Amino acid sequence: MQTSVAPITIVILSALFARPALGDTVIASVAVDAQGRLPNVAGDALLYTELERNVEDHERECTQACTSFYCGPGAAIEDDTRWDRYSMGPVPSNDLPAAFADSNQIYVSEAPLFSPEECDEVIAMAEREGDGLPSSKSGKYQLGKAWIKDMPSVLSWFNGALEKRLWPTLMKLFPDVVGDASSLRAHSVAILKYNASHPRTDVHVDDALLAFTIALSRPDSFEGGGTYFEHIGRVIDMDQGHATFRPGSVRHAGSTVHAGLRYVVGGFIAVSDKVEHVRRLNERGNRILLQDPGTAELEQAGRLFEWAIRLNGQCSLCHQNMADVHLRLDRPQDAEKSSRTQIQLLPKDSDAYFALGVSLRAQSRNGEAGEAYKAALAIQPNDYETRINLAAVLAEAEDFEGEAENYQRALELRPHEAKAWLNLGISYNAQGRNDLAEETFQKASVALPNEALVPLTLAKMYAKLDRPAEAIDQYYGAAVLNSEYFDEVKLGVGTARAQQGRLAEATVNFESASRMAPKNKKLADALVGMRSGSQKLAEASADFSNAVADVCGTPCQDIVDTNSYNICAVTWGDGCGDAPPPAGFDATSTVADLCRKSCAAFVLGASVLAPASD
Predict the structure, then answer these.
(1) Which domains does the chain have, with CATH numbers?
(2) 3-state helix/strand/coil string of 563-598
């Protein structure tokens, strides 16, 4: 049964502004908050200017909407549609909250508003006129999308639907917001397509006072789907032709489609005589955040969010964006306060806990940050960014098993993310689980064949494991993929050549690296020692020779190149087992005894070996 609520209270604020009367329209457009309190805007001329801009933008956009979409009275219809009603959650609408005092204002039709044949035809027209509904970013995900205003046949159908079905329905469901159907304005209306590769949206609010969704697909044409509402913790399904109407500030998500195709119409609705001041202030600030702003721009964004919060202290999105500003301005304690306010307003918002974790970590409160990330994952376990941030916190606490587990979970979500692959391999390496580390880097090479960081990181691991020949191969592989790493490659190859005892070749590579990094004093100092050692090695080993051609079937130089000169200390018995040693040698003879020339750097030791740079 429809519950009536008190009409919106309009408060005249002219006495609070030091601006003359241009402002009657501006002033009258500001409403009281959900508790009937007057917004604190006294004497703020800058805020007045922004409110004035809001009114101008609103009027312009309402006029523009009518160039594409039907504007006018709704048709008189006999409508006995019944509705399932759901709560809109603990936080009132960002704008005109008093108009939504009855919390049960999510409406889902019990019977279809549109026939199956009509819906099928809309899908066909959209595919034909919308270029197959190409991929479009929706938060963290991708969806197929085409704007209805750009599809003539779909637009014609939709304008008829506005007049005959949608406008009359919105007047009936939201009488305290929509006094006259002629005031309704459609904007940002699209056909959306979900499938297994474009399965869902993240939890979000819509940039509108009112919003609606129309289910176009037959229920047997896809698996999964529906709309997830965060505050009730469940997915609401709709059959073909059914519709949902709701305030735009309700937090929701398109639930995951596992197979098939799901098409919906998603639309935002403005009301020409209701200016959404809070939404517009927040959006204006958010646009600044998306433009790589400097300090002055960030401060301006912060002012916009602060003004929005003054108009409605329960604007959770405003607090979230305010936390972002504080973090970017290196004010993590203020960011923490904003995030905690957001959590008080939306205790099921995983993004709020994530932001809290970031602000705590910026204060070196890693234990608390880890708990915040875990709280976020308890709400949304499949969030990639939270997984890798928790993994990083656990690594700093030397909980390498927990770190590896979270990187593994992250890779299940995004198997082509280089950062997670590399960090998982590094985590295994830190645990001494070198076989798993190597396996992980090799899997990364398959998943990311064009990512130079994979062979570069694997090369560094091989060098630390005294496997210089493999390190060199990986270093050069990285250089082929991305020449920007060439200086790092030359330095790494030089280090690996030094491990092989090939000091002349190491010197050449260090010289090349030094030319590309002339201010690297550590490298320059190492190069002085390397040149001296290379010359001494050449002179002192001139008369050296290998006593055998190979050890256990492997040529002397190959043994050293593969395993570094440290292999020269290994005895025949340890390396070759029960195989009989060459004549004149026994099981205690070392590789250096057998391969003196190849082991020259090892034999001469500190007199020729300069500390390697890394």
Answers:
(1) 66-275 (2.60.120.620), 550-607 (no CATH)
(2) HCHHHHHCEHHHHHCCCCCCCCCCCCCEHHHHECCC
